[in-house]
Each structure stands twice: as structure tokens, then as C-alpha cells.
Specification:
Layout (H helix, E strand, L loop, with lengths): L1 H15 L4 H15 L5 H13 L4 H38 L2 H4 L3 H32 L3 H16 L5 H21 L1
Helix pairs in contact: 1-2, 1-4, 2-4, 2-6, 3-4, 3-8
Length: 182
């Protein structure tokens, strides 16, 4: 039963995750945290941070983490295949129509219409992560400082988000190791 649920959940994510990774993350959260309770919100945030620090598509990494947690290697394989299958089939089918649709005003209008929805989904998830982090932060000033440094790195220094996550993870590891020795 769990394999079927894994397949259906990640297949839905693969179908409705128009636009790639950023649009799939809120869907993964909705399926894995809210609907099936396979992972906690904290585990999801950890998987997401780790997934962003590693190369490759985030949706398949999230599928692998959740699938592996639930049913080991077979669960990971089922989840990865389920999230990838709609994309593979869709690409094969859509490639047949690319030459006809590439200049269509209807298709361009549909793409323009979906972008605000994606933005709202990302803002909502960011807000939820911020609130969870704020509640869990022992030192609020340190949390705000890290937030300010992250924004400065992203916006002013144009640091890649994955590199920024890796730097913060390394810093957190070093800090916690230092704290443990005190």
C-alpha cells in the first residue's frame, strides 16, 4: 500500500509541478508533510536544505529522501520514477508539437498567467520556513543576522543559493562542534 501511495503522491507532484523544482517543493511539502505525514516539517526543511546543497534536480532528490525514509531503496526508486515519469512522457509528446506551438500567443499567455501562482506558492513556503525557524531559534538576533547575511549574499554578492546553503551548513557544523567543546 505504501508503495502505491508513494507512487501516486510523487506522480501528482510530477504532473502538477509545472516549471520545475521551485514549483514542486510546495507540492512535495503538501503531499509528504501535510497529507501523508511521512516526514515532519523539520525533516522536510532538512531534506530541502541538503537537496539544495547537492547538484541535480531538487524534486528527484526530495523523492529519493522521502521514498528512502519510508521504504528504503525500493521506496526511493518508486518515488523517483513516479516524479520523473510525467516529465519524460510529457517531453516526448510535447516535442512533437514544439514547432507548431512555439509562436502561439495562447501558449505564451498560459505561461504568463501561471507565473504569479508560482510566486505566491514560493512566498507562502518561505514564510512558513521563516516562522518555524523563528520559533526554533534560541538567539533571535543571530537568526536575524543570518537572514540579513543570506539576503546580502544572494542579492548583493550574487552567491548561488546552493553555495550559500553549503556555507551555512558548514558554519552551523563548525559552530555546533565549537559549542560542544565549550
Amino acid at each position: 500500500m505504501i508503495y502505491w501511495q508513494l507512487f501516486l503522491a510523487f506522480f501528482r507532484i510530477g504532473i502538477f509541478g509545472y516549471g520545475g523544482g521551485p514549483t514542486m517543493i510546495p507540492l512535495v511539502h503538501a503531499e509528504c508533510v501535510k497529507k501523508y505525514n511521512w516526514v515532519t516539517a523539520e525533516e522536510f526543511a532538512d531534506y530541502y536544505a541538503l537537496g539544495n546543497a547537492l547538484p541535480g534536480p531538487i524534486a528527484t532528490k526530495m523523492a529519493a529522501y522521502v521514498g528512502y525514509k519510508m521504504k528504503g531503496w525500493l521506496g526511493a526508486t518508486v518515488a523517483i520514477l513516479a516524479v520523473s515519469l510525467p516529465v519524460v512522457v510529457g517531453m516526448i509528446v510535447l516535442m512533437q508539437f514544439v514547432s507548431v506551438l512555439k509562436n502561439s500567443s495562447t501558449v505564451n499567455g498560459m505561461i504568463q498567467a501561471i507565473q504569479p501562482v508560482i510566486a505566491v506558492m514560493m512566498i507562502t513556503l518561505t514564510y512558513e520556513f521563516f516562522i518555524k525557524g523563528w520559533k526554533g531559534a534560541q538567539r533571535k538576533s543571530g537568526y536575524l543576522g543570518l537572514l540579513a547575511l543570506s539576503l546580502a549574499g544572494l542579492l548583493l554578492l550574487d552567491i548561488h543559493p546552493g553555495l550559500l546553503v553549503a556555507i551555512i551548513l558548514l558554519g552551523a557544523f563548525l559552530y555546533s562542534t565549537w559549542q560542544a567543546k565549550q
